[in-house]
């Protein structure tokens, strides 16, 4: 019989050990999926220079399995390469591969194709577990091979993420725990929950060490922990994320380091001090359309930046928090820490005018008409992961009749015969009056109704997680439903719109509309990181050399988008912008980021 390898991390009498020696986990969260792969090594080296001995990362299921049954672990999705790099640098790896990750990531990491059909996410519902098992069959053996027991850097694996604040299906937790073990995980298993007895009770499972998530709750966590288990804060919130329309959250270095020192210090001579993983050590970026959303009475979409006021900034900049943590972590190391890396290079400031390529309706009509149905279909039903879907139907109407979208997720720009009528919002106005008739229309009107519907971020936390996108019910003209809908899914790569004089305008389009697709070209001699700003733009998506950087919105707080150096090339660089409301006139390269007005965050 083959002997089961021993795990690297064990615990006894409230103390943590690594291969039998007393150990403190000094960790920081760094997410490979929020960093250009060419910059993974740089960010990990900065983490090691901060004094961390461990990196923790989630593994977002939906990032890897965008199409059911086709899990992708190549390129940007090569999590194994990221883990091996960490080991080569000398870092342990704490992996958090839950089916659900939260992380302000779209849908909490659950694939849209699954949340569109599973009745009960994060439960022992057979539909959900069947999909989880298939995903684990693809993922877990890859992680198992990289465990410390087999010569790799993985020392800990999380079973589920803050489950105690979501549900109470203990069989589900047992299924995940047993699924990890049966697929070869031998290292320390953990859970993570907030600092209330109810959360800990419902989020715990036998055979997994409990840990906590908080900003300032050291005393409460110490009181709630199982006496034999060490005190680990798996997420110490040293900063916070931002929603569109709010302010940029920051936490002072003094506030953060005070909580870290309290956690690491023994609470009495008979106890060992705790361990920490800072969330985030390096936040990175919600590139593409991967930013999630919260729901607290209204939808709260998360911004593109995930800087999180972290010690290592979005572009790798090292700040006061980095130096404070390095000083606190240094005494826990036997030797000297790695030298402090230089600050990153940035491109010089520049500005260039935008050239409009096509109207918003040009973009829509360039996409072939897709599925038709009597009632409008959801994003999930037409296979749209996120972004934009255009709904079109021929309608008859009386002048001044109300157009109403019964359940809208999340925003729609409305056109009638190519003329913009207005914008409808999920948590604001979902009705508008149809226009008066032209003289040639008599007493009744008709026309082509187009609604360009935008998903502003799939909810990642709480009871609304997994909620669908698009037009979720019907569209009514007065009391009467409009029937006969055609759907066009706007691709997330650069729309295939012809450039220049041959572009033309869609038939009936409003040529004076300020919305649409535009581009700008920057000639770059020495590619480096850059910060992009879009003065005058209202609600846009931005591509750099074909890569979707993310969103900008005039409501702020985020003003600049991070454009990593590896995305630029020497010579001609093309930036394309699709704005659903109004394009600006220029694009600016700025030398400093602008995350918007500040608001102090401490947490609980």
UniProtKB/TrEMBL annotation:
InterPro entries recorded: B-gal_1-like (IPR026283), BetaGal1-like_ABD1 (IPR048912), BetaGal_gal-bd (IPR048913), Galactose-bd-like_sf (IPR008979), GH (IPR017853), Gly_Hdrlase_35_cat (IPR031330), Glycoside_Hdrlase_35 (IPR001944)
Domain Glycoside hydrolase 35 catalytic: 16-329
Segments forming domain Beta-galactosidase 1-like first all-beta: 376-487
UniProt keyword list: Glycosidase, Hydrolase
One Pfam family from the record: BetaGal_ABD_1
Domain of life assignment: Bacteria
Domain Beta-galactosidase galactose-binding: 521-573
Entry similarity comment: Belongs to the glycosyl hydrolase 35 family.
Name this polypeptide is given: Beta-galactosidase
Organism: Microbacterium panaciterrae
């Amino acid at each position: 019989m083959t002997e089961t390898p021993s795990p690297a991390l064990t615990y006894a009498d409230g103390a943590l050990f690594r291969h039998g020696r007393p150990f403190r986990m000094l960790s920081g969260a760094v997410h490979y999926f929020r960093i250009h792969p060419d910059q993974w090594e740089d960010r990990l080296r900065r983490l090691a220079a901060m004094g961390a001995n461990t990196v923790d990362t989630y593994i977002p299921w939906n990032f890897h399995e965008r199409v059911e049954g086709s899990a992708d672990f190549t390129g940007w999705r090569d999590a194994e390469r990221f883990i091996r790099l960490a080991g080569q640098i000398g870092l342990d790896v704490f992996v958090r591969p839950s089916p659900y990750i939260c992380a302000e990531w779209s849908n909490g990491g659950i694939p849209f194709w699954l949340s569109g059909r599973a009745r009960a996410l994060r439960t022992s519902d057979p539909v959900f577990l069947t999909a989880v098992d298939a995903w684990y069959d693809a993922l877990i053996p890859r992680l198992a091979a990289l465990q410390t027991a087999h010569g790799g850097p993985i020392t800990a694996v999380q079973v589920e993420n803050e489950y105690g604040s979501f549900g109470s299906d203990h069989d589900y937790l047992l299924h995940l725990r047993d699924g990890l073990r049966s697929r070869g995980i031998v290292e320390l298993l953990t859970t993570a929950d907030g600092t209330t007895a109810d959360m800990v009770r419902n989020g715990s499972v036998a055979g997994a060490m409990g840990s906590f998530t908080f900003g300032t709750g050291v005393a409460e966590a110490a009181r709630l922990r199982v006496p034999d288990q060490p005190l680990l804060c798996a997420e110490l919130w040293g900063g916070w994320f931002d929603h569109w329309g709010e302010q940029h959250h920051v936490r002072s270095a003094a506030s953060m380091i005070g909580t870290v020192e309290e956690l690491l210090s023994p609470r009495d001579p008979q106890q060992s001090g705790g361990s920490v993983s800072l969330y985030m050590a390096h936040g990175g970026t919600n590139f593409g359309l991967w930013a999630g959303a919260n729901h607290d009475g209204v939808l709260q979409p998360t911004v593109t930046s995930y800087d999180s006021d972290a010690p290592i900034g979005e572009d790798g900049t090292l700040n006061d928090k980095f130096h404070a943590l390095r000083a606190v972590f240094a005494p826990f190391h036997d030797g000297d820490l790695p030298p402090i890396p230089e600050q990153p290079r940035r491109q010089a400031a520049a500005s260039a005018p935008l050239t409009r390529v096509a109207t918003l309706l040009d973009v829509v009509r360039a996409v072939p008409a897709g599925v038709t149905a009597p009632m409008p279909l959801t994003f999930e039903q037409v296979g749209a992961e996120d972004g934009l879907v255009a709904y079109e139907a021929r309608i008859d109407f009386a002048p001044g009749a109300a157009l109403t979208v019964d359940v809208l997720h999340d925003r729609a720009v409305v056109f009638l015969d190519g003329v913009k009528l207005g914008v409808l919002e999920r948590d604001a106005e979902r009705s508008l009056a149809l226009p008066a008739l032209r003289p040639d229309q008599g007493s009744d009107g008709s026309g082509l109704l187009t609604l360009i519907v935008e998903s502003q971020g799939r909810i990642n936390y709480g009871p609304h997680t997994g909620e669908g996108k698009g037009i979720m019910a019907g569209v009514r003209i007065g009391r009467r439903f409009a029937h006969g809908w055609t759907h066009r899914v706007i691709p997330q790569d650069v729309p295939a719109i012809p450039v220049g004089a041959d572009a033309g305008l869609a038939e009936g389009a409003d040529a004076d509309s300020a919305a649409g697709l535009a581009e700008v070209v920057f000639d770059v001699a020495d590619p480096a990181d850059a910060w992009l700003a879009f003065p005058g733009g209202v609600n846009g998506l931005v591509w750099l050399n074909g890569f979707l950087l993310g969103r900008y919105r005039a409501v702020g707080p985020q003003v600049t988008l991070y454009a990593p150096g590896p995305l630029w090339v020497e010579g001609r660089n093309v930036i394309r912008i699709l704005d659903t409301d109004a394009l600006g006139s220029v694009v600016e390269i700025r030398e400093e980021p602008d995350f918007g007005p500040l608001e102090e965050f401490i947490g609980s």
